[in-house]
Write a structure and sequence with these properties.
The protein is an alpha+beta fold. The protein has two domains: 172 residues, Inorganic pyrophosphatase (Inorganic Pyrophosphatase), CATH 3.90.80.10; 116 residues, no CATH class. 35% of the residues lie in helices and 19% in strands. Strands 1-4-5-8-6 form a five-stranded mixed barrel. Strands 2-3 form a two-stranded antiparallel sheet. The longest helix has 18 residues. It starts with 15 loop residues before the first strand and ends in an 8-residue tail after the last helix.
């Protein structure tokens, strides 16, 4: 499953999902998660022999000033696996600037249900001073041996600034014209193909859905089910999604493969006992449609 299907959080900005890319104290290798496929790529090996002092990840469906999702440092005593998702609450942020522009790091701790040891930590200043010093020292120096790169740390800010940063990054994501749940490689190829006899092409449908959606933008942050429940336009577009899942819709003149149809049939069989109402079923079908669409684009990198 592509990690682009993971929500930004249950109660943004106070309860956020963080997708981990780099475990704390791991070898000096910078990993990055491919947002569409979920694959973990080696971005580069750090030239300085330094280890990340915290679990490092990002909030899905956000866009920061540097063109990447909002970065998050998760404070906890254990390393987390790359690609894992942890619920957190923000307690502050480290303001920085590097050669690419503003590069803010949000500081967060796990929610009490995940790890209650930080229940009394309200702001970053509640953490041990040594912890803050280690984080700041790492980011001040981890690019020292990389030519043309630099970092300037501007200081620490509190939880309110962190929450504002999260909301601003979500708004930037929603406002960016290139942001779409469909992988760009798929959209690009589909745009060059004629419409299917059984329905509109994927770009035509998707743009129509985005333009006509009657529910607030937050439905794309907090989950698809809420959008399906509130938005009659999205319910109408489900008819196309269902035809897409059954193999009638075409991309680049070719129908969806039998493998995708078999996977859909298998999913329906496995989840039949857990379905609870039309809204839940529609949301699941919409998620599957987006996932299948993403699967078609695996022949090329999108990031």
């Amino acid at each position: 499953m592509g990690l682009d299907l993971v929500e930004s959080g249950r109660a943004v900005p106070d309860d956020i999902n963080v997708i981990i890319e780099i475990p704390m104290n791991s070898e000096p290798v910078k990993y990055e998660v491919d947002k569409a496929s979920g694959a973990i790529f080696v971005d580069r090996v750090l030239m300085t022999p330094m280890r990340y002092p915290c679990n490092y990840g990002y909030i899905p469906h956000t866009l920061s000033g540097d063109g990447d999702p909002a970065d998050v440092l998760v404070i906890m005593p254990l390393p987390l696996l790359p690609g894992s998702v942890i619920r957190c609450r923000p307690i502050g942020m480290l303001k920085m600037t590097d050669e690419a522009g503003v590069d803010t790091k949000i500081i967060a701790v796990p929610v009490d249900k995940v790890f209650p040891a930080y229940s009394k930590i309200v702001t970053a200043q509640d953490l041990p001073e040594h912890t803050l010093d280690r984080i700041q020292h790492f980011f001040e120096h981890y690019k020292d041996l990389e030519k043309g790169k630099w970092v300037k740390v501007e200081g620490w800010e509190g939880p309110e600034a962190a929450r504002a940063e999260i909301m601003a990054s979500i708004e930037s994501y929603l406002a960016a014209p290139e942001q779409t749940e469909l992988r760009p490689s798929l959209a690009k190829r589909a745009a060059m193909a004629p419409s299917s006899p059984d329905g509109p092409s994927i770009p035509q449908w998707w743009q129509s859905a985005r333009d006509r959606c009657q529910s607030p933008p937050s439905c794309r942050i907090h989950g698809i089910d809420r959008c399906i429940e509130q938005c009659q336009s999205c319910q109408r577009h489900l008819q196309f999604l269902r035809s897409l899942l059954c193999g009638r819709a075409k991309v680049s003149g070719q129908p969806f493969s039998a493998a995708h149809r078999a996977a859909q049939a298998d999913r329906r069989a496995r989840t039949a006992s857990h379905r609870q109402g039309d809204v839940f079923r529609d949301g699941q079908e919409l998620r599957r449609a987006v996932a299948v669409s993403g699967a078609l684009g695996r022949d090329g990198r999108t990031d």
